[in-house]
Design goal:
Order of helices and strands: EHEEEEEEEEEEEEEH
Shape: globular
Helix content: under 10%
CATH architecture: Sandwich
Structural class: mainly beta
CATH class: Mainly Beta
Number of strands: 14
Radius of gyration: 17 Å
Number of domains: 1
CATH superfamily: Jelly Rolls
Largest sheet: 6 strands, antiparallel
Strand content: 35-45%
Distance between the termini: 23 Å
CATH topology: Jelly Rolls
Number of helices: 2
Length: about 170
């Protein structure tokens, strides 16, 4: 049986990044533009559905609601995410470092493909894949919400492991 953890439920309270600076109002009444400098990002711990150590900052939208969202994700060196899938296409653009991604139901570092700084990758909805880093890596993730992660092997779900460990 597969378990699903909606990351958006945890992220729902984050909303759109609060430190964005409004740079210009459109005189035609079409809205405003926002730009966020790297130093203004509000990093938070990733939800318990990801292994400890990951950080994230929501740049646009709300991963817990329907519609487009964009978030920046920071993974430490030697970080691993077990095989899993998402309910929608996952679009990644690496900002720094290298993210390794492989597909399948088993974690196999030798099968991981490097996605280097400046590169883009897309995993279709429900594609079984895994990821890992060798050094700190930062990437932008964009997708349609609500967002979630389902581990191929429920025993790999860190939110379940943490709950089991806490209960002992």
């Amino acid at each position: 049986m597969k378990t699903s953890v909606l990351i958006g439920m945890v992220l729902g309270g984050l909303g759109v990044l609060g430190t964005a600076s409004v740079l210009a109002q459109d005189p035609a009444g079409q809205g405003s533009m926002t730009i966020v400098a790297p130093g203004d990002l509000k990093w938070t711990d990733a939800p318990p559905a990801l292994p400890k150590g990951a950080k994230m900052a929501v740049l646009y939208g709300d991963p817990g609601k329907s519609g487009l969202f964009v978030m920046r994700v920071k993974l430490p060196a030697n970080y691993k995410v077990a095989p899993h899938w998402h309910p929608a296409d996952e679009n990644l653009s690496v900002v720094s470092g290298t993210l390794f991604i492989g597909h399948g139901d088993k974690f196999d570092a030798a099968a991981g493909k490097p996605i280097a700084t400046g590169a883009y990758a897309m995993m279709p909805a429900k594609m079984h894949h895994f990821a890992y880093t060798k050094k700190e890596t930062v990437f932008d993730l964009s997708a349609m919400g609500p967002w979630g992660i389902t581990y191929v092997n429920p025993a790999d779900d860190p939110s379940k492991t943490a709950a089991t460990t806490t209960a002992k």
